[in-house]
Amino acid sequence: MDKGTYRVKTGFAEMFKGGVIMDVTTADQARIAEEAGAVAVMALERVPADIRAQGGVARMADPVRIKEIQAAVSIPVMAKARIGHTAEARVLEALGVDFIDESEVLTPADPFHHIDKWGFKVPFVCGCRDLGEAARRIAEGAAMIRTKGEAGTGNVIEAVRHMRLLNDQIRRLSGMSKAELVTYGKELGAPAEILELVQAEGRLPVVNFAAGGIATPADAALMRMLGCDGVFVGSGIFKSADPERRAKAIVLACTHYDDPELLAEVSAGLGEAMPGLAIEDIPDRELMQHR
Amino acid sequence: MTIGVLAVQGDVREHLRTLGRIGVTGRPVLRPDHLVGLDGIILPGGESTAMWRLMTRTGLAASLQEALASGLPAFGTCAGMILLAREITNWPETYFGVLDIAVERNATGRQVDSFEGRVAANGLGELPAVFIRAPLVRRAGRAVEALAWLGEAPVLVREGRVLAASFHPELTGDPRVHELFIHMCRKGER
């Protein structure tokens, strides 16, 4: 019996489809997420909105925090490592974290490279803004992709931008000859072998969730309509007025995204959503998606 | 013949694809009215807690419970096995309870301990099997037939019209377990 094979990693990601993965910072929040129907929780020290507001260097969460959350729930527990921080990832793997998010929400650790994810038994999810970025992460061994959006803003526009761009680029592959794929791959900075897989399937060869700015049930439904397999909700739940109700509503909306009557019902009376940020009010150097 | 695949959450597409490969029509089941006219239903892999909450909030759980009680054949993989089990040894809830087994959730450990390999199944031969944070059967009733084992634990079990696997046949492209289920769904067997 073989552990940590690519099929075991990507197969695990398939199990999340249609679901919502929620950021949590305490065991209590993790229990609320599980009870609401989250398919996994992301254990972290501060949600993206706080990281954005407080500034400074954002790092992997304290193992004590991660263990508390692991002990509190039966669903999978994910955690974030800094981009390129192989040692943080090794710590998270040793803790038995179920999935590592190599995340732009934390302060990047390596200015040149991402983590070589093939050398790990634990699967990785990585962010992307377009097909080139997705293909590079898959080539490095990512078992799941999420569009980046702009985390901690409560503003869905960047998530939509990245998903639309990805869809558009995937559509362009259909009908391309091998030579054209190679040229297009150069343009995107994407390995041609990965593009061949995408071309054959008409979609990414791994599960793709949306992330970054999802704050309402309708936001989740919108991302599903655009073709993503599920959503990550970061600050959107526990920075809102009524996290329990909002979490349940987003879970239902993610599954029943094409049922407007149900969306109307679950969207009603949720109280204040998290405070939002206009993207144009954020200085370019503070955008997390460019990391 | 039309086989439903519970589609609130999980690896629905892989089950539909496997059904397609053996020439069987699959139908995603999201709402109670999607159950009408089915010859069988597959409960896919996913998170059992999430799937159950999604089903109860729309009335699908009650309708499916009724359909199972009136003899709709069912096949559960991983989370689907948990949903069908009579007892869950390490969790306070039980769900449909139509299969007389006690399962332990996440019995193979965390994801770093998930694995794939081959298991020998009675009547089916050696099957590729992917175990992901898999549930294992810790007790099986007398009417339950174990078709494949992993050490001491049965990993493919059948009782009457209900079939369940700890692993994910839908992830491997090998259709033999699905073919067995289709055989169980044929009218003569009901």
Descriptive notes:
The complex is a heterodimer of chains A (291) and B (190). Chain A is an alpha/beta fold and 291 residues long. Chain A is 43% helix and 13% strand. An eight-stranded parallel β-sheet of chain A has the order 8-7-6-5-4-3-2-9. Chain A has helices spanning 6-14, 27-36, 48-54, 63-72, 86-94, 131-139, 157-173, 178-188, 192-201, 217-225, 235-238, 243-255, 260-267, and strands spanning 2-3, 20-24, 40-43, 77-82, 99-103, 124-128, 144-147, 207-210, 231-233. By secondary structure, chain B is of the alpha/beta class. In chain B, 24% of the residues lie in helices and 34% in strands. Chain B has a single domain, classed as Class I glutamine amidotransferase (GATase) domain (Rossmann fold). Chain B starts with a strand and ends in a 5-residue tail after the last helix. A seven-stranded mixed β-sheet of chain B has the order 2-1-3-4-12-11-10. Chains A and B meet through strand 1, helix 1, helix 2 and helix 12 of A and helix 1, helix 2 and strand 7 of B.
Give, in spatial order, the strands making up the sheet with the most strands of chain A: 8-7-6-5-4-3-2-9
**Low-confidence parts of chain B, pLDDT < 50 over ≥5 residues?**
none
**What is the terminal-to-terminal distance of chain A?**
38 Å
The CATH architecture category of chain B equals 3-Layer(aba) Sandwich
Which oligomeric form is depicted?
Answer: heterodimer
Largest interchain contact? A-B, 39 and 39 residues
N-to-C span of chain B: 14 Å
E-strand count of chain A: 9
Largest beta-sheet characterization of chain B? 7 strands, mixed
CATH topology of chain B: Rossmann fold
Gross morphology of chain A: globular
The CATH class of chain B turns out to be: Alpha Beta
Order of helices and strands of chain A: EHEHEHHEHEEHEHHHEHEHHH
